[in-house]
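Q: what sequence does this backbone want?
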């Protein structure tokens, strides 16, 4: 991390990306611990679904009970907990406060309801935007990119969370899009490379049951390892935009570190 003297300065796109990757690698055990704790149940049900229902031409069901259960767990709990806990961990790291996997997960769990509601409504809006010739969906996705850090670090009302994310991103949509696009591209490239390498080395047929199960496992592992990077970038964008728009500096450190619950008290 940078020194306290430069930590609260606005960052260029390149510098923000550089810091996001440095935060990720310098705190890899912490980020991996949060992500693994959140994603492992869904991964277990995904693999179990493939084992029980079968895959490819021998599939008994196109999508089994455990697959549905895995999707439900991922949608309702995994994504909110993972993004919320990672946002908390990145924020504390950025502000120079101690943080552990347990404290980050505890904070995320305490904000789980408004975070789920905000992400659910935002997802429906984004899906509607993609139906309307794609471009509106991309715009909504960019402007709602800060929902997790806002929900964890500021307000608790799900409508307020969405409005706050939109307000912060407004005027900086292109920068936010570029940063998140680069991060997502890096993660997806890592996933594609790992899948290709594993199938090449093992000579497993991708259409076989073992191949299907292996793809699911690799996809989940990539999510566990790579997904925190997206949340790290979003959280750093959140602070960068607060610095630019609200003059966030060392004088605001204590209130930011206190968290929304103490601020509202």
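A:
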């Amino acid at each position: 991390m940078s020194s306290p003297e430069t930590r609260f300065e606005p960052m260029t796109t390149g510098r923000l990306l550089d810091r996001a990757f440095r935060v990720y690698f310098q705190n890899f055990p912490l980020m991996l611990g949060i992500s693994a704790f959140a994603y492992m149940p869904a991964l277990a049900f995904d693999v179990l679904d493939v084992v029980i229902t079968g895959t490819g031409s021998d599939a008994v069901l196109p999508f089994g009970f455990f697959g549905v259960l895995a999707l439900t767990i991922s949608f309702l709990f995994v994504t909110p907990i993972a993004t919320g806990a990672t946002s908390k961990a990145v924020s504390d790291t950025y502000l120079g406060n101690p943080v552990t996997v347990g404290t980050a997960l505890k904070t995320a769990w305490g904000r789980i309801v408004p975070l789920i509601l905000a992400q659910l409504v935002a997802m429906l809006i984004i899906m509607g935007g993609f139906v309307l010739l794609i471009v509106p969906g991309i715009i909504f996705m960019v402007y709602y990119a800060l929902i997790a850090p806002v929900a964890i670090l500021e307000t608790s009302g799900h409508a307020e969370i969405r409005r706050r994310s939109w307000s912060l991103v407004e005027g900086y949509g292109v920068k936010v899009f570029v940063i998140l696009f680069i991060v997502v591209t890096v993660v997806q490239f890592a996933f594609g490379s790992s899948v290709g390498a594993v199938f090449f080395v093992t000579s497993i047929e991708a259409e076989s049951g073992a191949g299907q199960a292996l793809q699911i496992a690799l996809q989940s592992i990539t999510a566990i390892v790579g997904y925190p990077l997206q949340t790290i970038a979003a959280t750093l964008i959140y602070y960068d935009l607060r610095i630019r728009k609200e003059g966030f500096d060392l004088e605001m450190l204590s209130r930011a570190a206190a968290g929304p619950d103490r601020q509202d008290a």
